[in-house]
Design brief:
- The complex is a heterodimer of chains A (about 260) and B (about 260).
- Chain A has one domain: TIM Barrel.
- In chain A, about 45% of the residues lie in helices and about 15% in strands.
- Chain A has nine helices and eight strands.
- Chain A has an eight-stranded parallel sheet, sandwiched between helices.
- In chain A, strand 7, helix 7 and strand 8 form a beta-alpha-beta unit.
- Chain B is an alpha/beta fold.
- Chain B has ten helices and eight strands.
- In chain B, the strands form two sheets. Chain B has a six-stranded parallel sheet with strand order 1-2-3-4-5-6, with helices on both faces. Chain B has a two-stranded parallel ribbon with strand order 7-8.
- The longest helix of chain B is centred in the last third of the chain and has 16 residues.
- Chain B is globular and about 50 Å long.
- The chains are: A alpha/beta (about 260), B alpha/beta (about 260).
- At the A-B interface, helix 1 and helix 8 of A face helix 9 of B.
């Protein structure tokens, strides 16, 4: 069973979210990926206005109409617009089919403005996916690092938080999130550097490592290889490739009456 | 299982971390278990060591222990004095079919006349040239070792000084797109698969360049070997394309 934490509508052609989703599912089938978590829409904004993030979330909702048996949606919000973000979380998760929240680079996640967003997400039993990178060649102005995420996680032990890309510089990212049991490492997005998953399993335990691909900018192939080719027990690979994500999403999927 | 010739592997130690397969016997065993029948090896030591002659000697000896499977590609650093002797030894003493260049680690641009001269001498000796565009994503490099990718723009002009040179670019697809890619492919440059990305990426690349220009390469053990192999599975390739990329193009490139 392979569930993918980290998917976008990029890298494939198609005029509608459904058309792009159909293509992505075709590649997922070739690679044995059963479920995809998708977020952000047809055209991205790094610092979206409420109108923009609503439009992007509408794209995801549109794709889910045809593909709810293969995909889960995460709602994209911006902590610069707290009230509108909360309303969007209620629309897409509380009253809609989505199961997680996606935060990207608009606002650094150390900020206390994220607190009501995290609290509401946890109340709904949804998960938070926060993009993180720790770039040697320079951060975007508000881009979060795993150390920023650790700050957020320390304030919200009740929330389930996914550390997007594990900071890219994963040797540092893994260390930064290690003390926080409610933070999980996303394997997606960077090059298929050997040793990432081995270190994550050694330092966090296999239960805290989750496969994500970051398609379509990346390939399923390079990202699956990090896990499939890792020198770790087969039982750990199963956890990382799907069982961990299923465990994290089970509470909200049960609430929504989704049968697996 | 389709036999694979992996045109892009490394021996010895990556400077910034231990890698799971950085002992040659375990790397060889892993590659062979994946269907690799031959692997073209450079040395990580060539990136930062100034004693390139020593690096190439150790590489040749290590490959000799796995003769007919590991094919050594020694390195030449044309910024060092008497680099021509390193080239001569690679060819005449170690009988290498080609060399591997790291212009960004060795500190020269491709419009430096010395690069054109090196290409010309390789063409004269009928030595294949592998040119590595980068070793790792610049975003994740050690903060004290930032090495930008090679600027490939001057390459078509430099190649004019070396008619008939056999050139393969390694790790090119993170930095090479569009018109320059097409120009280089048209000029006979070959590429490899290690840094192809995006869903169905190999199929997309084969839609842009002639089939005979793409060779299988993994960048192991720095990259997980399975990445390159799974990319072949992710793309919908014909049997002919698969055979060309996996084996035939490599055999044609160095005609061992």
């Amino acid at each position: 069973m392979i569930w993918d934490l980290h998917c976008h509508f990029s890298g494939v052609s198609g005029k509608t979210p459904q058309e792009r989703m159909a293509q992505l599912i075709g590649f997922a089938d070739r690679m044995g990926v059963e479920r995809l978590c998708v977020y952000m829409g047809m055209s991205w904004s790094r610092d979206p206005s409420p109108e923009e993030f609503r439009k992007q979330n509408d794209d995801v909702l549109q794709a889910l109409k045809d593909w709810s048996h293969r995909a889960f949606g995460f709602v994209y919000v911006n902590a610069k617009h707290v009230q509108e973000s909360l309303e969007e979380i209620n629309r897409c998760i509380g009253d809609g089919p989505m199961v997680g929240v996606k935060l990207w680079v608009a606002h650094n996640c150390r900020s206390e403005e994220l607190d009501p967003i995290v609290r509401r997400t946890a109340e709904l039993k949804a998960v938070i996916f926060q993009h993180t990178w720790l770039k040697t060649d320079g951060q975007e102005p508000a881009e979060s690092t795993p150390m920023d995420l650790a700050q957020l996680a320390s304030r919200h032990p009740e929330a389930t938080i996914l550390c997007g890309h594990t900071g890219g510089n994963w040797e540092i990212g893994i260390r930064a999130i290690r003390p926080f049991r409610n933070v999980f490492a996303d394997t997606g997005g960077g090059d298929p550097a050997a040793g990432f998953v081995e270190m994550a399993v050694r330092e966090l335990g296999a239960e805290r490592v989750i496969f994500g691909s970051d398609i379509g900018g990346r390939s399923f192939a390079s990202q699956l290889a990090k896990v499939v080719g890792a020198d770790i027990p087969e039982a750990s690979k199963k956890l990382i490739l799907g069982e961990n994500l299923k465990r994290l999403l089970t509470p909200i999927l049960r609430e929504k009456g989704v049968r697996l | 299982m389709q036999p694979l010739i992996d045109t892009h592997i490394h021996l010895s130690r990556w400077p910034c971390r231990r890698l799971p397969l950085d002992e040659t016997p375990s790397l060889v065993e892993a590659l062979q278990s994946q269907g690799v029948v031959q692997a073209w090896a450079g040395s990580f030591d060539a990136l930062l060591h100034n004693d390139i002659a020593g690096v190439n000697g150790r590489l040749a000896e290590e490959c000799r222990r796995h003769a007919s499977f590991l094919i050594p590609f020694g390195s030449v650093n044309p910024m060092l004095p008497d680099w021509q002797e390193d080239l001569r030894r690679c060819h005449e003493q170690f009988r290498m079919p080609g060399i591997r260049l790291h212009p960004n680690y060795h500190g020269y641009r491709l419009d430096d006349p010395v690069f054109g001269e090196l290409l010309r001498l390789c063409a004269e000796r009928k030595l294949a040239v592998q040119l590595s565009a980068l070793m790792e994503d610049k975003r994740v490099q050690h903060r004290l070792l930032p090495v930008p990718p090679v600027d490939l723009a001057p390459l078509p002009e430099a190649m004019k000084r070396a008619p008939g040179v056999k050139l393969q670019l390694l790790n090119a697809f993170q930095v090479l797109r569009g018109e320059l890619l097409l120009r280089l492919a048209a000029a006979g440059v070959c590429f490899e698969t290690a840094t192809i990305e995006g869903v169905g990426g190999v199929h997309k690349v084969l839609g842009q360049i002639p089939q005979e220009r793409l060779l299988f390469g993994s960048h192991a053990p720095f990259f997980v070997f399975e990445s390159a192999k799974l990319k072949l599975a992710e793309s919908d390739l014909t049997a002919e394309q698969m055979k060309a990329v996996c084996e035939e193009n490599a055999r044609r490139f160095i005609s061992l």
